[in-house]
Design a protein that fits this description.
The chain is α+β, with helices and mostly antiparallel strands and 757 residues long. Helix content is 34%, strand content 25%. It is a peripheral membrane protein.
Amino acid sequence: MSEQGKGSASASTAAPAPGSDTYKGWLFKWTNYLKGYQRRWFVLSNGLLSYYRTQAEMAHTCRGTINLATAHIDTEDACNIVLSSGGRTYHLKASTEVERQRWVTALELAKAKAIRMMNDQSDDSGDEEPTSQSDRSELQGTLKILISKLDDLSTCNDLIAKHGAALQRSLSELEGLKVPLEGGEKIKAVNERATLFRITSNAMINACRDFLDLAETHSRRWQRALQYEREQRTHLEETIEQLAKQHNSLERAWREAPTLVSSPPSVPTNNQGSERVRKEEASDEDEDTEYFDAMEDSPAFITVTASESTQHRRSQSNLSGASGGQASDWNQDDSMSPSCNDVSGKELQPRRQRRTHIPDKPNYSLNLWSIMKNCIGKELSKIPMPVNFNEPLSMLQRLTEDLEYHELLDKAARCDSSLEQMCLVAAFSISSYSTTVHRTAKPFNPLLGETYELDRLEEFGYRSLCEQVSHHPPAAAHHVISQRGWTLWQEITIASKFRGKYLSIMPLGAIHLQFHSSGNHYVWRKVTSTVHNIIVGKLWIDQSGDIEILNHRTKETCQLKFSPYSYFSRDVPRKVTGVVADSGGQAHYILSGTWDDKIESAKIIQSSRGGSGSEGKQKTVYQTLSPKLLWKKYPLPENAENMYYFSALALTLNEPEDGVALTDSRMRPDQKLMEEGRWDEANSEKQRLEEKQRAARRRREAEAADALDEGREYEGYQPLWFHQRRDSLTGETNFVYKGGYWETKERQDWSMCPDIY
């Protein structure tokens, strides 16, 4: 108890002091029925009450904090204090009633100050930085008011002193008169009280004068500190802005510099050829083929581009059978072998003119505090997130955007070589991330039963259909069939983890691609997307992780590595590297580039073991032909920065279409209102749709409960256009297209569609 007394003593001296913001001391906190009240060290500072197990924990571990601005303070008995805010309640007990009263006083003062500061912040939200001149004028005005009040008190004190002296003289005269003994005693008592009254009034005036002096001293100190902090803030903002500009300039210079020479990016030339060294983090300790920076003494594979005079000779000697075709196939053309380069779907002119712009994004400010304060004490599922965080597309439409570069699959369908086909499939899997580089807004979460169709049969030969097949967990099924020789299907479930400064988005589920003529069946999964600067700063997105693409018919593989962004790395940002290998593990092609710009492929004509690195692993040296361009990102449309950075395809996804299903995302009212710039109406409509979906879920749960009580079997919700089947290749159970949608569209009979809007 000596520690408690010591803590309480220090707290009691801190709390009554004028201007003090901190109160510390020991209190007993209710934990549970087993342990009861436990002794904890409490710290009251800046309107927040925090507690720790010991004083030493203040340096590293806070056990809990409650904001007094929104807290209710109550006292149960002589020693107890109850604090409640939202869904959190602290039951506290002081050692004595006096100590309890000190804490209650300190808490009430801190609460009043916190509320006052919060009101001041909301009042000053439109003018965050008043000029120092106005601050000075305000302080001087306050001091003048204090001085005038002190003058009034001095006048009152003079009058009290004058009348008090007269009263004492009268009382002295009364004492001189001959009065009974009892009357004399009463007169003496009155005289003593008058003296005490005069002393008290003098003390009051002296305290006021001391307060004024202290206020003058501190106001000058606060003014200097405030001016210094503002100068520091301005300097810091200028420094950050300058660093951001320098970073952007350096990034542009780094990416544009390699184009000044005739070699591919990062390919220094010499007499024998050129070397390209790639950095890759080791994922397994026994992996021999890895990428590392050339400046580091680390294991790596090195690609050496053969000179023109030696390409044909070497291709006919020890490496002529590397890819099952002529080594010079890719050296005769800017892309791939002639069988893969007949006609591209992109060369055909569309029969319908699609829209090329949408209304500009409104410049609405977002008050994050107004959203967060409405979330306190509510269930996470019932928090209405405004459309300010969204873009006017649903997740189903974002999934459809994977088809932006569908011509890569059209070209792959015409390839005779499965390894060349694998290169194009890898480029297609990478291209789906190119639209995310500037797209930091989240798409609308689809409602259960929501669908989206993209019919490009006449223009590009394919039809795409998506349906939201599950809400908890959220899952979408996608099916695409092309008249140009391929079918793609996938079921994607999004898992996310908030890690403080960034949000990790992990798509779960396999993507299947099958080519009709060859029967080649490719399967791969998506990498993790990371949204940085969730709390503070400008949002930006990065992709990181590994993709393995497997051809189940030939067992050929492609290993892709998405390197995470690092400020200290000398590599180009958003880098992707990969190796295409046959069923025996022999590498045939090297892929390199970035997921937001382009991907190149180089055919391997020779491989050998190089020297060992610092960790004792051998480097694999690949000699390749000159790299050929597989894929390059289309430029964004004009004014894209004001249209949510939508690509040319994304701009058309919400365009009205005749005859689509009643559940199509184009029909979703909140999404349409947001696209038109009517965000307030969109927020109201979004809340209505979400509540309607919750009501439908409650009805299904009630039906399931009734069926259980009656011993009946309850089927539950079943999607319209997809059904669950076990995949023979992956062994997973997922939703696949069961047919019927396009036939129903031809009949225009949507009577079976649920009413979700």
